[in-house]
Input
Amino acid sequence: MSLSFFRSGSPKQGNALVMRELERGEWVVVFMDGNGDIRMCGTEDLPMQFASNRQITSDVNYNAGVFTCTSGEPSKVIDRRAFYV
Output
């Protein structure tokens, strides 16, 4: 799953703010899988948690994030083949 964020202000400040905001929260995530199905992960009782990994090198600054959950159930399909590619 890829994530895109757009914030006003400088890109470095915007990315840092978004990452901190995501790390502080608990989430229900809705996404489209590789088959075009719309799925939902997490619930009010078992929300998703976000963790980020920041790598800084001489050439590139890199931010990556992942949502995790300890649910014994797979993600729920909300809509099948919402978009045909």
Summary: Residues 1-9 have pLDDT under 50 and may be disordered.
